[in-house]
């Protein structure tokens, strides 16, 4: 493997290269490829409706809709992640953080206020933070809190519910508390790195010995790597979410809506299945507000942004299955408890 | 093959999806999938993605070519392991075991499934949700638009004539007082045909999906129409425009207290924005 060892020394030279004719040709081919896809799409659209059964067609429409809706957030998330990893000096982020672990996690759970990306975009960002030297539990705090404690989500939740029934306040406090409790729980883990998938942990170790490449080169490398890992997960998560929606009648869930306990559970199942972004889930659930108790709505609004089919598929790129099962159980129990408290108290 | 799949799958997927999204936006069909307020954001981010895709292709293609040229023949496999910094094993380094066979198979399958679906996004014509989903989600389960009734009370004839399925469905959910509907005829109410589960022979719904974010959260809304033998003229899922008056439901099986007694039902083209936002 001597060749591998000498590779890094050659990289900077390659990275420092100027753009030559070969780049232009490759870029031209890329543009042609994109135009070919658009052309093909335009031609096939004329071919009339596909001879598919309604359910299959709806599955495709639903999954496509999840993908198209998540696409801009994923792109924004990857862009911010690259910004944090490549363009922002390391000291900036570390300097503003308190030393004490509870304080650190509390501040990290408020990062979403400055990085208003919905949860699918937060996965690449959390990956970037881990590479940047955040501990694994800290990355989870960010992942869990940011989709709820961010300006867009707060605005839309307020637009949907105002301050009625304490839904907004319970959502914000609940999200903050659950993220911090979970972060504390995992910080007790003897070997936090084992919470990651082997592959991602390896990637992080590699990054510590990162080769000095030009920032432009690093940006493109990260873009290729992040899309390569996140895009298949997103598509598969969307297809599974679409399939389950076509298969499970929604009125089964709604029928459970008025019982204080079952309505909480029904809302968790609904949130899990529907996989809708935290920025807009308040509007989605608003029509159900008349059938369901307020605590159950809170459960939906706290559980849904963190745990759903699409998110599990995305988070699996980073955390091990075992970790995700633990996270799901803990978040599920905490958000159910929160919902029950609101149901019985309010 | 594993290496190039790992390197290129993300670029290929995000590039194709972004290209499709841009085409959908250009042809005005992006609203089949998402709420109009996200169209601009989606278009902007798809363009950013495509710019990065092209730049990455350019940078990557040259790196690969250079590496291939600089290395002696016999070591091609090893080289392949090193040249894609974008893949999971990142930059070249020593402690880089080839991924285990099972993991590799899983990765290939995932890329294959995702690739197949995205190919479907390119080849299959865009479509709206159908009655299959409307039945799955129970029509009007959530049509509680509290304002609709107040507004309808004070609305003049012109405003009533502009009511969509959303307004009527909201009103019907809150009142079954026929007097309320006395001077409020239905004019050219557009929607797709969806059978009433309780009396599919005689009653159908003029239906629309209402969307708050994307097609995933589509809620079916519908206004019942009493028209015995409607199936012979209007297939399920076809679009119609209905005019008529509200009357108490003549059908014994249907659970709807009030239905439209149509004075005219016409088949129409699917509107450009099939969903209500």
Characteristic terms for this protein:
heterodimer; A: 346 residues; mainly alpha; 17 helices; 74% helix; B: alpha+beta; five-stranded antiparallel beta sheet; 44% helix; Permease (chain A); transmembrane (chain A)
Tell me briefly what this model is.
The complex is a heterodimer of chains A (346) and B (277). By secondary structure, chain A is mostly helical.
Rounded to an integer in angstroms, the radius of gyration calculated over CA atoms of chain A is: 22 Å
Widest sheet, order of strands of chain B: 3-2-1-4-5
Helix and strand pattern of chain B: HHHHHHHHEEEHEE
Q: Determine the strand fraction of chain A and express it as a percent band.
A: under 5%
Q: Indicate the mean pLDDT of chain A.
A: 80
Distance between the termini of chain B: 45 Å
Question: Helicity level of chain B, as a percent range?
Answer: 40-55%
Secondary-structure content class of chain A: mainly alpha
Shape of chain B: elongated
Q: Outline of chain A, from the CA principal axes? A: globular
How much helical structure, as a percent, in the residues of chain A? over 70%
Question: Looking at the chains present, what oligomeric state does this protein adopt?
Answer: heterodimer
Beta-strand percent range of chain B: 15-25%
Structural Rg of chain B? 27 Å
Mean pLDDT of chain B: 79
Give unreliable regions of chain B as ranges. Answer: 71-96
Largest sheet of chain B: 5 strands, antiparallel
Largest sheet of chain A: none
Written description of the protein model:
- Chain A has helices at residues 2-15, 21-44, 54-87, 90-95, 101-108, 119-131, 136-145, 151-161, 167-187, 198-208, 215-247, 250-255, 260-274, 281-285, 294-306, 309-315, 321-345.
- Chain A is an all-alpha fold.
- The longest helix of chain A is centred in the N-terminal third of the chain and has 34 residues, at 54-87.
- Chain A is globular.
- Chain A starts with a helix and ends with a helix.
- Chain B is of the alpha+beta class and 277 residues long.
- Helices cover 44% and strands 17% of the residues of chain B.
- Chain B contains 9 helices and 5 strands, in the order H-H-H-H-H-H-H-H-E-E-E-H-E-E.
- Chain B has helices at 2-26, 39-70, 76-83, 101-123, 131-136, 146-154, 157-161, 165-174, 230-233; strands spanning 186-195, 203-210, 219-226, 239-248, 258-267.
- Chain B has a 5-stranded antiparallel sheet.
- In chain B, a hairpin with a 7-residue loop joins strand 1 (186-195) and strand 2.
- In chain B, helix 2 packs antiparallel against helix 3 and helix 6 (146-154) crosses helix 8.
- Residues 71-96 of chain B have low confidence and may be disordered.
- Classes of the chains: A mainly alpha (346), B alpha+beta (277).
- Chains A and B meet through helix 1, helix 2, helix 3, helix 10 and helix 11 of A and helix 1, helix 2, helix 4 and helix 5 of B.
